[in-house]
Amino acid sequence: MSHPIISFLIPAYNVAPFISSCLDSILALPISKEIIIVNDGSTDDTATIIEEYATQYDTIHVYHQQNGGVSSARNLALSHANGEWVAFIDGDDVVINDTDLHALLTIAHQHQVDIIKGLYMVSGRDRPNRVKQPTLDQTREDKITFLSSKAYLEHCVGEMNMWAIGSVFIRRSVITALHLNFRTDLIVCEDPLFFYQLLSTDLKLMEVPYVLYHYQQRVGSASNSKEIRVKSINAYARYLTALIEIAQKQNDLSSRYIQYCILSTRLDLTRHYQNLLNAGYSIAQANHEPFSRWILSEEEYTQALKMKSDILRTQRGKTYYHKRDIGLDDITLPQQHYPAMSFVVPIYNVAPYLAECIDSLIRQKLDKEIILVDDGSTDNSLDIAMDYARRYPFITVIHSKNEGLSAARNKGLQLARGEYIQFIDSDDYLLDQPLIEILFKAKKANAPIVRLDYRTQTMIPVLPAEKFVLSTATDYFKREMLDAWQPSVCKMIIQRDFLIKHQIKFFEGILAEDAHFTTLLCLSDPTAKVLETNLICYFYRRRDDSITLHPTKRYGMGMGLLITIKALQQWFDMQTHQDEIRPYMDKFYDCCLAIAQRFMQEESE
């Protein structure tokens, strides 16, 4: 049985008004998952609600226990987890579904990341909605940042000290190897202690500038009795003692993070101690409580408060993104980074050529991402791709079973975030031309399609008189497809929004897929502009064993063209501009049929 990618672990205690929203937000995530809920002895309708969900969704698993606290419930959920990654979600919060988790986890895989740390949104009754800013300056510039978890920990001081636990994804294998769980003897600060034990072991962490979680602060009905307050203060003291013991074992007591935690917690304990005395608790009793060993003198308190204030002063304006009187949809968030160009490269058994291809893309002087899609290669192509991905943060590798060229391109297309996309065959490469200038001209001309010139080992095209020519999609289709039959998509740069708007992707499971794709590209909007240039940007390698030239593939290509005709007829029947494109479609059917018959005839001979 295959394991889910993510295990979402939810302790639930009296969260009946909120648990449905929490579960719905996770169920909406388009990723392989399991949801493990532990009902921690709820006395409201929480148990009934989660059991109803479990009967409807086989990805939800429910466990019940007597009330033992959030740490006990999380530990029980963790013991049943099967996912590659785990996320701890509170039952009154929600997961935010506007980030491509597949993309994040793919990046984490290629960079061998153990922990993914995202942003979270905070909402409360009397405070404006806020989003916690990234801890690192690089992430604040909308960049995904990689570093060791121990180095990251040193940045987690002052306002950056507090996390929402649901904004973190952790490899389950790491938790298992470290024998980590939540301290059940703590009723406060169990999350910071867990994360310190995790991060101080020097794992690889990735901080991302995307909001993953919505932390909803609720006003509880906690008692104001002195007994309850004494219990809570002693719990903070127990946390501090445990933290120092662990830091001493790891020879980490002098670290910036630990020293800040000691400073901040002792300030809090001293303030709580003074409030307790002001409420009438006797000094003699207070000085016999476990927390009394951590109380600061008046002079120590003044010095500690100044030290903490100095740290907070340097972080002013870097803690939250927020505005007053806004709704959840109006929060000022860091923008996801969208490069100018996405290069999508399907890969299958091209080890001798792959490095040359990737190097040519790296050299392109523009803001870019390179998406390498390994389609189940049996040579060392995947090893080559992974080596590049480890060295260059803008390279992403997807590895899948062999499903064919179209499926590989579609996987890359789904992951792409660039304003423009170019599909590159992995045995070809780009020449050094000013692509940024070409994109600038395309944007200025409002042309969603750019046609580049290319060359092969034996052919150099004749240069036209003009360097750049603007035409319509139908003119281009007539000249390139109907007159010359040049369906290759690799010589085109395409605006990603245009593909999304017209729902254009590759027909999977056939050969000659470029003919189908190019027809949709040119005829979905006949008035779309095409910018054509005579700049030779692409080198097409003609190989005897390539799909287009291999004799045994010709019959398959012929069958693919026949299937293409049928698929495009169905597409045509759904279009509202049939009269405009009918002459082009009729001529295309004739061309496809003639070429298919020729291919199949060659195979039979």
TrEMBL record:
Coiled-coil segments on the chain, per record: none
UniProt key word Transferase: yes
Domain of life: Bacteria
Xref: InterPro entries: Glyco_trans_2-like, Nucleotide-diphossugar_trans
Protein keywords: Glycosyltransferase, Transferase
A Pfam family it matches: Glycos_transf_2
Residue intervals of the Glycosyltransferase 2-like domain: 7-138, 342-447
Record-linked SUPFAM superfamilies: Nucleotide-diphospho-sugar transferases
Gene Ontology terms for molecular function: hexosyltransferase activity
Region forming the signal peptide: none
Record-given protein name: Glycosyltransferase
Species, as recorded: Pelistega suis
Organism classification: Bacteria, Pseudomonadati, Pseudomonadota, Betaproteobacteria, Burkholderiales
